[in-house]
């Protein structure tokens, strides 16, 4: 008997598999196809010959924990304790899974804002808890009245994703003020803030939960070196949480993976000595602007992209078919893979929108745009 009877193969796996089968350009899954910084690969090459291949401490490589604390202080002005408030995880997904498994009990409710990334619901269900899916407005702003109505004495956690995947939307000062008011009314709710794209923002500055003093004692922050440094396959993320929450999360983490692979942790720790995260937003903004420019003559309507490396587009002027079928046909007939936005909703709400990933080299974007503009 399945523990997850209603969860099938991820849409990302489906579309990437189809992209391979039909030799299509894969703008579906969110990973870069350009080279990693040579400074980082040089570090890895050197470390391969050194004694860094055995288990590291369960919570993370000690120098890396200190450098994460320094990065957070530099980025957000927040002082955190490396030994008790940081956990290096096997990607952000493992961090999210461990957090939910540790803190959510049977019959608790967890608020998930749709469209939502697909790794949130499964650990809630595996905790024998209840995911409560609440749709964002059609412009992807949070409807705080609707969110508050969904909260009750059973609500244990609210998950936010900022910058937001799949839409690229960024939360505002007003959003955080509304969230803080809501949490005042429900003092038992814990906030899980997924901010893996925190350094990939454009005209609007990313406003992090790290900067909200009223939230810090009940918030788990989720970050990703994989996203920040274009090494998604390394699967290295980290959590930051107050000690009373982190103690519980570490209990799950130690039996889930115990510790994250050693060479990646040491390499990232060394890399942080000279890399600047301040350059990342500008790098991806050029990618976003170039991709949007390439699609100017297409029949797609491009939605705002405030952060992440995703571009949402409407195909309403092209077809009336549902977004899953359109994406399949896009692969088969036109040779480009994208992700249908309806799959991020519990009710499969279909607004005729799809998501492209523009974290690709220029040649790939140009080839994809040529195909898309011919539709």
TrEMBL record:
It comes from the Bacteria. One of its GO terms (cellular component) is cytoplasm. The keyword Transferase applies. This is Methionine aminotransferase. Keywords: Aminotransferase, Pyridoxal phosphate, Transferase. It holds the Pfam family Aminotran_1_2. GO terms for molecular function: kynurenine-oxoglutarate transaminase activity; pyridoxal phosphate binding. Belongs to the class-I pyridoxal-phosphate-dependent aminotransferase family. CDD domains: AAT_like. Its cofactor is pyridoxal 5'-phosphate. Residues 24-372 form the Aminotransferase class I/classII large domain. InterPro entries: Aminotransferase_I/II_large, Kynurenine-oxoglutarate_AT, PyrdxlP-dep_Trfase, PyrdxlP-dep_Trfase_major, PyrdxlP-dep_Trfase_small.
């Amino acid at each position: 008997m399945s523990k997850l009877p209603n969860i099938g193969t991820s849409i990302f796996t489906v579309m990437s598999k189809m992209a391979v089968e039909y030799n299509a350009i894969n703008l579906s899954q969110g990973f870069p196809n350009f080279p990693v910084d040579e400074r980082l690969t040089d570090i890895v090459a050197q470390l391969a010959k050194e004694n860094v291949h055995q288990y590291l401490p369960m919570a993370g490589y000690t120098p890396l924990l200190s450098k994460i604390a320094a990065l957070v202080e530099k980025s957000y002005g927040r002082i955190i304790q490396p030994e008790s408030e940081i956990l290096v995880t096997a990607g952000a997904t493992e961090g999210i899974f461990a957090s939910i498994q540790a803190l959510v009990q049977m019959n608790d409710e967890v608020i998930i804002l749709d469209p939502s990334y697909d790794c949130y619901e499964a650990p809630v269900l595996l905790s024998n808890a209840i995911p409560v899916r609440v749709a964002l407005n059609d412009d992807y702003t949070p409807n705080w009245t609707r969110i508050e109505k969904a909260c009750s004495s059973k609500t244990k956690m609210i998950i936010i994703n900022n910058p937001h995947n799949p839409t690229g939307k960024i939360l505002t000062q007003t959003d955080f003020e509304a969230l803080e008011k809501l949490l005042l009314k429900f003092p038992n709710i814990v906030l899980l803030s997924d901010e893996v794209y925190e350094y990939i923002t454009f005209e609007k500055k990313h406003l992090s939960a790290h900067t909200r003093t009223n939230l810090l004692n009940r918030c788990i922050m989720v970050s990703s070196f994989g996203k920040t440094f274009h090494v998604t396959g390394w699967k290295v993320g980290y959590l930051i949480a107050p000690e009373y929450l982190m103690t519980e999360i570490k209990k799950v983490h130690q039996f889930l993976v115990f510790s994250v692979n050693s060479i990646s942790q040491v390499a990232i720790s060394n890399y942080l000595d000279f890399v600047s995260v301040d350059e990342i937003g500008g790098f991806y903004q050029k990618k976003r602007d170039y991709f949007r420019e390439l699609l100017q003559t297409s029949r797609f309507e491009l939605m705002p992209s405030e952060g992440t490396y995703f571009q949402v587009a409407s195909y309403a002027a092209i077809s009336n078919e549902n977004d899953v079928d359109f994406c399949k046909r896009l692969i088969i007939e036109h040779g480009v893979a994208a992700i249908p936005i309806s799959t991020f909703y519990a009710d499969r709400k279909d607004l005729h929108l799809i998501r492209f990933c523009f974290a690709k080299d220029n040649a790939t974007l140009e080839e994809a745009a040529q195909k898309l503009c011919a539709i």
